[in-house]
Amino acid sequence: MPTYADIISIGDELLYGQTLDTNAHWISGRMDEIGIKVKRRITVADDESEILKAFQESEDRSDIVLITGGLGPTKDDLTKPLLARYFNVSCILNESALADVTEFFKKAGRELTEANRQQAELPANCTKITNRMGTAPGMWFDERNTIFVSMPGVPYEMKTMMDEIILPRLKQKFVGGVIHHRIIKTIGIAESTLADKIADWEAALPPHMKLAYLPSPGQVKLRITTMGNDKDSLRAETNQQVERVLPLIEQYVYGYDNDEIESVIGQKLIQNEKTLAIAESCTGGYLSHMVTSIPGSSAYFKGSLVSYANEIKEGMLGVDSQTLEQHGAVSEEVVLQMAKNIRAQFNTEVGLAISGIAGPDGGTEEKPVGTVWIAYSDSQKTTAKKFNFSKSRVLNIKLSALSALNMFRIHFFSN
């Protein structure tokens, strides 16, 4: 029987969009690692009725309720008094918590205030969880067959508490569950097309194995998830399914799990002892940023030229002026020269080039916003492809860079 958890994040600032709730994301990952399935993540305002309602709903549906936020020393911090009300108990002074907060202020060279002293008053039915990074102790409740855990909203306080105390206790209490994921990463294929290609394979998956499509700009991840008691058997069973689906989509697959397209091409360049140079226009250096975000990229990336203006394309990159005048900067003829010339100038085995109209202005009827030409060049061939992306400047830049990396993958990996 799986163990289920709810995560409740409390705070108006999360709902106003002033603070990003990274806590729930991080906690979900930790729960997954120990085989506890998160069923729901809830964000609740600093409102008494809404918080109490969230407590009740989560208790009704889950084995564990993990709460962050609302434990500070001010009047808008409602979590502790509402937990006391929810369990119909009073808050009493916890001597261990008082000793902790007194020592915290002593080390900081500050005087203990009455508001901070009151942080040591905890619901009578809870077990104190030491917060060695801050002043607000956590609280562990084991009531009515449900575990409630309340933690500070400050991320580094919450994470320390989780790693050092809460996760070990949860693993000890809830033994045996394993959640195993395998992620297949694809690029250059639409989600609907991918689904059509693997429809029969997906329909034949065993009932305990679930497939999720996780699309992002230019990419789709296939996540296979299975639950059980033995990690090795789950891994073996999942790998068998990966082997069955690969022949259907192998031409679009660039990696697995934590692989990123930029790291995969870097590994391939290192393996083949080849180097890369890039000429960019509409992406403004974004492609080079992706390539150099990988540690050790200096082993294969020699550099780039952001030839945003035509005079830079002509004067520094060596693009023919007549070609620019006749065909325009966003053209097959120009981008082919960009890729070939950057490779020659930087003395690399591979050159990549991008020229396009990112928008929101600059488009024409013949070349609307989102028109992008990308070229690949090596000693055997120089080839280009036209893409028609979106009306969004940010999205066009990202899609152009990803498509250039995919173009590299297609041509370089086939050599």
From TrEMBL:
Domain MoaB/Mog: start-end pairs = 6-173
Instruction: Write out the similarity annotation.
Output: Belongs to the CinA family.
Family annotation (PANTHER family): NICOTINAMIDE-NUCLEOTIDE AMIDOHYDROLASE PNCC, NMN AMIDOHYDROLASE-LIKE PROTEIN YFAY
Concerning InterPro entries, the annotation shows: CinA (IPR050101), CinA-like_C (IPR036653), CinA_C (IPR008136), CinA_KH (IPR041424), Competence-induced_CinA (IPR008135), MoaB/Mog-like_dom_sf (IPR036425), MoaB/Mog_dom (IPR001453)
- A Pfam family in this protein? CinA
Out of the domains of life, which is the source? Bacteria
- This protein is called CinA-like protein
